[in-house]
Every structure is written in structure tokens, then in C-alpha cells.
Amino acid sequence: MSPAAPPERINYAQTLSLATKREILFGVLLGLFLSALDQTIVATAMPRIAADLSGLSLYTWVTTAYLLTNTALVPIYGKLSDLYGRKPILMFGILVFLLGSALCGLSGEPFLGNLFGGGMMQLVVFRGLQGIGAAALGSVAFAIIADLFEPIDRPRYQGLFGAVFGLSSVVGPLLGGFLTDHISWRWVFYVNLPLGLIALAFIASKMPRLASGLRARVDWLGAALIIVFAVPLLLGLTWGADGNFAWTSPTILGLFGLSAAALIAFLFAQSRHPSPILPLSLFRNPTFAWGAVARFLIGAAFLGAILFLSLYLVQVQGVSATKAGTATIPLTVGLIIGAIGSGQIASRIGRYKPLMLTGLVVAALGFFSLSTLNADTPYSGVVLRMVLLGLGLGPALPLYTTALQLAVKPWEIGVATSAGQFFQQMGSTIGTAIFGAVLTAGLTTNLAAQFAAQAAAQQGTVATTLRSISEEIRSGSGSRSQDRNATPPSPEELRATFAALRRHVTQAIETGDRKAIAAIQNNKVLPDEAKKQLANIPEGGVAAGVTTRFEPVYEAVAAAVNSGDPARLAAVAATPQLPAELRARLAQLPAPVLASPAARAQLLAGIKEGLAAAARQAQQQALQAALKGVNDGEQVALLSARATKVAFAQTVATIYRFSIVVAALAFLATLMMPNLSMPTRQKGDRPAPLQVEV
């Protein structure tokens, strides 16, 4: 059962002045902005960081370490803020986050030596420290809204918090790219320090303790068990989705088993502790229980929308990977409008459930529109779909938090708010893993089908090559792999590449240009077998090489002709190195011709010209064969690019069809929530602002 109302609880919503609330809110929003910004700004700088610190093998761990500590500690901070007040927990979180940021910026510096095994591992460890601080920023910030404002005012301010996340997704990639390119990637982390200190100053000077008045013993066993539950589960899902381990490998199964055992122990411990980290009594509250389910589902749909929309933009629309974040600005605009607008409307009408249901219907329509994406959808059409989806998902950011906070006792707001956020983050991780598995399986099937379809429409070598690629993909025996983060070359870029290759092949065959041969060997689209054939072109080109090979033969023919001996000439005429036409001509040569010096000279001049013509013909044949190979290669490359583009579009569209189902389930879960109205502010019930402890 929930404890009785703490006698020492202060109603800060009524005792603080509006000016003080806004100053506190500014500091909290700035701190939350730092946390949200860090998730987008670092991604842009990661290629440069991995290169500088020689840590490509630990590339994904930089994000994974932050995710693990951030998600696992969210519910713990929520409970601690109920027990000790929001202010000390929030300030602790900001300080740890700033310490982690400073250390991240120092990773790989000489004075750190070989700490943790090198610069990249230092960054991984310090990113984990950052996540420890960021967890407090995210979980406590949303609860502070409930402390500062009365229920009727909360949605409009919760909408501002949603807008902060949207703004960070726009500013992060731009700022990260600018700092990395013009200053140093280290400033991606150092930039947090001045902003964080400003946030600390506002919070330290203006924010009261925001204590719930609750007095209880900390459930340290529950805190440890929820970490043991969350970390192995997140690791297993992340490694499985990334393909580091097979889903049925002992490592993944062991992590899932440990997580399941910790969950059982956690539930047992929570049922017996007087003040648990996550009171199980909350799940008897239909608003909290169904709201948690809806938050879980929305988390899966929300992150899936962002990740796979970025994948579509890179692989199909041809947006560079570094610009994929800013390419989703229309989605962000829709999110901000949806979050702020729904909060304002909810505060005016005093109800939130109709807006939540409406938002989910709009989100389902947005997912449906995205499920119709294809390889030829113009970017303007993608923009409209993104805005529609953002408008639908926007209300989820403020209104579900408001609903959970209204459904629990004031001294349970911290744990309820952080629990809702925890479920949403877990939904994001699990949804990403499931959708990632759908992507991998669907992409294999669609790629094989598209290559086969392209092969059926072609003939000759092109058809054979494409059919072979399709069979390799289907069987999994090929070495072809698709870097999902790399922007594929456009048809124009491919044509330009092959046009340059044709020029180099022509120069190499006709003149033996060493630079042209070197360019051919460095070409990434030409098969190795073709490169070998073009590697040994002699100086002067193919014709010069053939002429050089013919010179000893001509000298032997000239000697035989000038000797005037028919037997000697017959022996030379049998030489297989001579062209067949020339052998036949020499074999049929009348004896009187050999007796005349003038006739012999004329004969030899004709033979020399014939050999020169044969050399030119050999060069022309070699050039035609090489250019045919290049042309076939260009056609294969263009058709492969088209097949890959169509396959990616089909696969991403399939994921959005699954997202429609997820949105529908979230709608049903929300429908089960009680249709509660928000308490309204009565005239004359606001006491005069009081001075409270800071």
C-alpha cells in the first residue's frame, strides 16, 4: 500500500511565485537540453573520433555505454528524488554529467597514458559516466513540472520539455559537424561545460529543495536488482540487433537468462520493501498500468520512426549520413508543434485523453503514409509524411507524463514519472532490436528478389552477373555487404565514374599510359580479373606490343624472301605466329617473284603493312572487348544500385506497416485508461508566495 500523506510536504505550485518558477524552469530546461543534445551531437563527430583514437572496434560502445547507464538508473533517480528532494538529485546529475563531459573531451590525451587500455576505451568509460548523470537530468526534470505547477498548467509546460528534445535533434548534428570540422571533436563534449554551469547557477540559487516530505529507507537491493535486470537485457538486445552475436548464441541467451532471474528477484524484493524503488501497487492504478504499456509501445514506434526514416533518407533519397539528422527536421517540426499545441489545448479544456487518442490516430495515419514510400517518392512527399507523423507523436511527449503524474499521490510523482520514462526507453531498445531483425530478414529477401527481377529483364553477361548476385544473397554465400550508414552513389556519380574509367581504358590500350593504368588498378568498381588483364599493357599500347612481337617474325620472313629459296620460305610460312591470311599468301607465292629484287621489295612492303594492320586490328579488338566489359559493368552497377534502392524502400515500408500495428496497440492501451479530468484552479485558492528553503 502507498504510505500516508507526508506531514511535511509543501505545495510548491501554490507557494512559489510565477517569476521564480520560470527561473527554475529555465535552469531545468537547459540541463535537459544538454542531456538531449548529447545524444545527437556526438553521433556526428564519431567517425572523426574513431579515426583519431584508432578505436573503430569500439565504435558502437560509445553509444551503448551511455544507453546502459542512462536507462538502468532512471527509476532509481526518480525514487531518490521523492525521498531527498528534486534539487540535490538534479544538481548531482548535472555535476556528474559535466564531469563525464570534461573527461570525454580529454580521452586519448597523453597525460592519461594507457588508462583503461587506450583513448577509445577511456571514451567508452567516460560516456558511461555521462549516462549516469544524464539519467538524473531526464528522470527528475519531468517530475519538477508537477512540483512547480498545478495540474491544469502542467501540460503546456510539459510541451516545452518535448520541444527541447525536438530542438536538440536539429541543433545537435549542425553543431557537432561545425565543432568537429572547424575546431576539434573534443569541443563536442566541452561545449556542455559552460551551458551546464549556467543551469547549475539557476538551480542552486532559485530552486527550493522540492522535497515530497516522504521519509523512508532507500531500497538499495531493489536498486541493484533493477540494474542487473536492465543492463544484461539492453546488452543482449543491442548485441543481437547489431549482429555481434546470434540471437541463439550462449552469450545472448545467458544475458537474457540473467535479466529474467534479476526481474523475478526484483519483483519479490519490491513486494516486501516498505518503500520500494518501483512500488508494485502503482500497477493496480489503471492509469499508470495502461499508461506504462502505451509508453512502452510509443517508445518502440517513436525511435523506430527516427532510425528507419534516417536509413531511408540515406539509402533511397541519397542524403549523406552526416546530414540525415537535419533531413528529419520536418519530423522534428511536427513533434514540436504537436507537443506544445497539445499541451496548450489540454490546459484549456482540462482533459488529456481525447488529445492522446487523437494523436495516436494521426500517428497511425503518419505510419500508413510512410508505409507507401517507394524508391521514387520525391523528397517533398517524404516531408509531408514526416510532418504528419510528428504531429501525431508530439502529444505523447507531454500528455502521458501528465496523466501518470495526476494518477498517483504527490509524493509518488518522482517514481511514477521516472518509471514511465523507463518503460518508454525500454520500449525504444526492444523495438529497435525487433525492427532491426525485421530489416535484416526483409532486406535479404527483397534484395534477392530485386536482383532477380533486374536479371530477368537483361541478357548476356549483365543478366548472368545479376542472377549470380541474387543467388549469392539468397543463399548467404556471397561476400556482398551493404553499409547501411554509407550513402550509396547516385546514378549520375556512377555514370561519371564509368566515363572516367572508359577514358583510362582507352588511353591505356592505345598508348600504354602508366597513369591511366594506375587509375584502372585503383578503380573500386572494376572486377579484379579485369584489372589483371589491363595491368600488363606494354609501353606504347597494345598495337605497339603486337608490333614488337611481330618484328622477329617479319625479320625471318624477310630473310627467307630475300634468300630466294622456296623451301626456306615454305618453312617460314608454316610459323603459327603469323596471321593465317599471310601464311596462305606466302605458301602460294610464285617462284618467279622470289627471283626479282623489285618484286621481293614490293612483297615485303605489303607484308609489313599487313602486319601493322593486324596489330591495329588486335588493338581495336582489345579495346572493344575492354569497353564492352566496362559498359556491362556500368549497366550492372546501375541496375544493382536500382535494385538496392528499391529493396531498401520496400523493407522500410514494411517496418512502417508493423509500426501501424504498434500505434494501434498503443491506442487500445490508452483507450483503457480512465478518462480523468484535470483539477481546475479555483478562484482565491492560491496563497501568497512564500519564501522556501533554497
Descriptive account of the structure:
- The chain has helices at 12-15, 18-52, 61-84, 86-106, 119-148, 154-182, 187-190, 192-206, 220-242, 250-272, 286-315, 324-327, 329-349, 353-370, 379-393, 396-407, 413-456, 460-475, 491-511, 514-522, 528-533, 542-563, 566-573, 580-587, 591-595, 597-671.
- The protein has 694 residues and is an all-alpha fold.
- Helix 3 packs antiparallel against helix 4, helix 3 packs antiparallel against helix 9 (220-242) and helix 18 (460-475) packs parallel to helix 26 (597-671).
- The longest helix has 75 residues, at 597-671.
- The chain starts with 11 loop residues before the first helix and ends in a 23-residue tail after the last helix.
Write a concise keyword list for the protein shown above.
elongated, mainly alpha, disordered C terminus, 26 helices, 694 residues
Q: Which helices and strands, and how do they pair?
A:
Layout: H1 12-15, H2 18-52, H3 61-84, H4 86-106, H5 119-148, H6 154-182, H7 187-190, H8 192-206, H9 220-242, H10 250-272, H11 286-315, H12 324-327, H13 329-349, H14 353-370, H15 379-393, H16 396-407, H17 413-456, H18 460-475, H19 491-511, H20 514-522, H21 528-533, H22 542-563, H23 566-573, H24 580-587, H25 591-595, H26 597-671
Helix pairs in contact: 2-5, 2-6, 2-8, 3-4, 3-5, 3-9, 3-17, 4-5, 4-8, 5-17, 6-13, 6-16, 9-10, 9-17, 11-16, 11-17, 11-26, 13-15, 13-16, 14-15, 14-16, 14-26, 16-17, 17-18, 17-26, 18-26, 19-20, 19-26, 22-23, 22-26, 23-24
